[in-house]
Recover the amino acids of this structure.
């Protein structure tokens, strides 16, 4: 955490997120205390230095954004008991149920989803569960939607990320400028936000016909409950 906080990368990343968050809070006339932080798919940080650095950035952002204790939740089905215990000591609420990313944000709060290097279906589920004007109340920090669409065969995209495809043209995306020493940790990571004026420009009937996604387990890159 000290290593990351001493870099220009952290300062630029934190400032970008704070700017987006403050814009949303101001537009919705909310206070910073009306912010939740949800982390999915961190991985086994006891074994992986990549996951440890991702956790370090999460901790640093929680402090920088002044997100209060009790509003920070985390889940990965691969966490071992020791990792869960440590995260509890670090004042995270460790979720006991696999939400599969189907987490609906609370109407009067902003939810920041921290999801570095997660599978496409997990991002897709977050979008589906908040489909409609609720997207105004979320920020997604994770794999670039733009690069996902550019670099993935259409067959796989349509079966695992159809909501990503739909919303990408109306998404404000900021790609993190990652220094070489963190390239394997945060490569291809972006801040995604959904602004009110962009969502108002979607085609008629855009929000309709939004069934719950169903995946082929061999393609989905997600662990089901």
């Amino acid at each position: 955490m000290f290593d990351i906080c001493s870099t220009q990368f952290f300062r630029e990343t934190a400032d970008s997120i704070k700017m987006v968050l403050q814009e949303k809070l101001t537009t919705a006339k909310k206070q910073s205390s009306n912010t939740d932080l949800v982390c999915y798919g961190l991985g086994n940080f006891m074994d992986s230095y990549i996951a440890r650095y991702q956790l370090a950035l999460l901790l640093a952002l929680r402090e920088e954004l002044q997100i209060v204790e009790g509003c920070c939740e985390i889940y990965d089905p691969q966490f071992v008991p020791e990792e869960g215990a440590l995260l509890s000591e670090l004042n995270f609420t460790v979720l006991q149920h696999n939400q599969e990313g189907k987490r609906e944000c609370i109407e009067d709060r902003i939810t920041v989803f921290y999801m570095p290097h997660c599978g496409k279906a997990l991002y897709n589920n977050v979008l589906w569960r908040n489909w409609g004007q609720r997207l105004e109340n979320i920020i997604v920090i994770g794999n670039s939607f733009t690069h996902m669409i550019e670099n993935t065969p259409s067959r796989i995209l349509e079966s695992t990320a159809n909501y990503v495809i739909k919303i990408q043209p109306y998404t404000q995306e900021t790609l993190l400028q990652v220094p070489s020493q963190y390239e394997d940790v945060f490569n291809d990571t972006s801040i995604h936000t959904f602004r009110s004026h962009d969502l108002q420009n979607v085609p008629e009937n855009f929000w309709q016909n939004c069934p719950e996604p169903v995946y082929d387990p061999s393609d989905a890159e997600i662990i089901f409950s």
User: Anything to note?
Assistant: The first strand starts at residue 35 and ends at 40.
